[in-house]
UniProtKB/TrEMBL annotation:
GO annotation terms (biological process): inositol catabolic process
Alphabetic keyword roster: NAD, Oxidoreductase
PANTHER family per UniProt: INOSITOL 2-DEHYDROGENASE, PTHR43593
Source organism: Paractinoplanes abujensis
Protein name in the entry: Inositol 2-dehydrogenase
Domain Gfo/Idh/MocA-like oxidoreductase N-terminal: 7-103
Catalytic activity: myo-inositol + NAD(+) = scyllo-inosose + NADH + H(+)
Amino acid sequence: MTSVLAGVQVVAVADVDLEIAGSVAGPLGASVHKSGEALIADSSVDAVVVCSWGPTHEQYVLAAIAAGKPVFCEKPLATTQEACLRILEAEVAHGSRLVQVGYMRRYDASYRALKAVLRSGELGAPLMMHCAHRNASVPGFYEKEMAITDTAVHEIDMVRWMFGEEITAVRVLRPRRSANGGDLQDPLLLLFEMENGALVDVETSVNIRYGYDIRGEIVGENGTAALGSLSPVQVRVAGRTSDPVPTDWRERFLTAYDVEFQEWIDSLRTAGRPIGPSAWDGYAAAVVSDAGVAALRSGERVPVSLTDRPKLYAPEVPA
Ligand code: ISE
């Protein structure tokens, strides 16, 4: 952050492993705190980034809101919708936005270009979107629900942002299981119903070996638009054409992470508040992913029911 981004400096670091915190803080001349709460209370800290594991998010985000400090929280905002609601209530009581959630697909150049085409109106009304979210492999602690709560949750946020409307119901189909996934139910096929009747399908394949591959195609009344190829080079050799495929999300979304942080920093400096994905977006994603988990378990269509949207989170005005 200190060396890549402008207008920001890392001044303090906390981690459950103090040695790791020290190794990050040392070269930056930053201080080390024993707890997230101590870091948030540090008067030299103007804004906080929470990238600890999910179950700790609620406590740090609430502490930052209580201190009146802007807080960037990696997804998920919290691990249950009840915890997300507590965050919404605290922020609404504070009276202005402090929270931004790390849904970084919104900062990826390809997704932004796709949204610009959609907004231009040349496709006509969007009727469907086909998405694929493929990981080469996943770590040993990855459980079957994570295909929804950790993986497809990116599409859940992206499609709400892309279409500018909420998801109203979810279904999950289980195709034949891949032998690469061990006991995991992999792949999955999710189907989202959107407010205006459009349908979105999302394939999650998290052990597909060949690489990290993210796809998206919108089908409109008059045409289609898809995320383009990201390859800077195409090789033709020995009778075959090939493009490199990224190995994981760090490689695929490297630039999006930087754009996301830079825009967060710039919004805090210029508008005094975050303008990216809000606590409402974090809450909505949690409710949809809970509906997805219920649909996976029951095999049924599960409606999504959101609480009333507080005025603080007025819907985005279309550009
Ligand atoms: C991981 O947490 C991510 O955020 C990645 O983008 C996603 O592809 C992966 O499946 C998740 O586990």
